[in-house]
Structure to design on (393 residues):
């Protein structure tokens, strides 16, 4: 690793160090870093990890402690084992034991483990937080926890983190990978330049290229298997609902969804005129919503639009005819403005009234936001910030 000196147009090597030399320890430092920055281990495109417990010792008849327990976007549990300057010989066996323990955890147990972790965080920081159930619903992007597939059979993943890997460790990890056991090895190296310290995190097994191939093969295998009966039911139900809803919209004064096709997801998006900031209809088991979702890949762009809409909040709500929910969603990229109604969504007898409500309130929302969004779109075009994307749609 090299440090760039633009003034001299030169590069200078950084000094690789050992954690022990710098006084860093496994639990107080490396574990804390990864707990608070799990994206360091999420190097694939679209990959995200949510830490749900640390120093987990909830295994029957053993006092062993798992370093970090996480969940990925597919609902798979991820066992993370950290070592400092050397993995040792037994790290793979240790992680496999933890994976075996975790394989038996039910969805309710996972939620309880995560809730205890969040409760501990509240005690440590004094800052309020969302419930484990709400946080998992948000992270997994499902319309209810009952729809989430969490810790399915044979889906547990292993992640190893260390500065140096023994050959017997890497050979075993590669052998396990041949049997569909998802294993990753990350090499972490501290560097020093004067008083500054840097940490390089590099996935060495599998390489990013082979990792994408393996993920693709696993996804293909899952796709070819019969989907879960409940999931099939939900998809069929959503398609039927959206077909009826889109037919109603086509006969209304709201043209947003004229060229939109029904889908199996619990949301249906339509362009607002600004890239990655669509209008959305939400169809859930217990709730329906209309809203504007500000989900640009750049958080600054979302905040830019949200703040300017919020400045006209009174006028917008007056035009809409009711108070809206304004959700800046701090510490997340996306923001939302929405209006919701509780329902028994999976009772088809309720669908005509639900669809009428959606048509009526999306029409009012689009009318209330039309002119403010046009003005903001012009402001975005005049802005010099390259991170903001705009569209004339």
């Amino acid at each position: 690793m090299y440090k760039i000196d633009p003034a001299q147009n030169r590069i200078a090597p950084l000094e690789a160090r050992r954690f022990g030399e710098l006084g860093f320890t496994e639990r107080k430092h490396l574990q804390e870093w990864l707990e608070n920055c799990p994206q360091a281990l999420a190097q694939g495109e679209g990959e995200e990890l949510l830490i749900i417990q640390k120093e987990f010792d909830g295994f029957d008849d053993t006092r062993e402690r798992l370093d970090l327990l996480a969940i990925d976007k597919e609902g798979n549990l991820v066992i993370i084992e950290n070592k400092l300057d050397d993995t040792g010989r037994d790290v793979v066996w240790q992680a496999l034991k933890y994976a075996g323990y975790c394989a038996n955890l039910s969805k309710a147990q996972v939620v309880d483990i995560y809730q205890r972790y969040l409760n501990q965080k509240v005690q440590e920081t004094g800052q309020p937080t969302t419930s484990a159930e709400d946080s998992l619903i948000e992270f997994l992007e499902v319309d209810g926890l009952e729809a989430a597939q969490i810790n399915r059979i044979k889906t547990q993943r292993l992640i190893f983190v260390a500065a140096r890997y023994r050959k017997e460790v890497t050979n075993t990890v590669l052998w396990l990978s041949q049997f569909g056991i998802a294993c990753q090895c990350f090499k972490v190296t501290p560097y020093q330049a004067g008083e500054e310290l840097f940490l390089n995190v590099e996935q060495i097994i599998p390489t990013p290229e082979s990792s994408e191939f393996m993920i693709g093969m696993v996804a293909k295998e899952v796709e070819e298997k019969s989907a879960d009966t409940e999931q099939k039911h939900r998809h069929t139900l959503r398609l039927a609902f959206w077909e009826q809803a889109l037919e109603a919209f086509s006969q209304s004064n709201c043209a947003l969804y004229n060229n939109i096709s029904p889908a199996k997801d619990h949301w249906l998006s339509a362009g607002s005129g600004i890239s990655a900031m669509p209008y959305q209809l939400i169809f859930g088991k217990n709730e329906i919503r209309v809203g504007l979702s500000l989900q640009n890949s750049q958080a600054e762009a979302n905040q830019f639009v949200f703040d300017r809409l919020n400045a006209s909040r009174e006028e917008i709500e007056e035009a809409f005819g009711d108070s809206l929910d304004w959700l800046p969603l701090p510490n997340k990229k996306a923001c939302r403005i929405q209006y919701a109604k509780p329902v028994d969504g999976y009772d088809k007898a309720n669908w005509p009234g639900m669809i009428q409500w959606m048509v009526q309130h999306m029409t009012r929302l689009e009318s209330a936001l039309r002119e403010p969004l046009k003005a903001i779109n012009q402001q975005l075009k005049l802005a010099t910030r390259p991170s903001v994307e705009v569209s004339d749609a």
Summary: The first helix runs from residue 19 to 22. The chain has a mean pLDDT of 89. The radius of gyration is 24 Å.
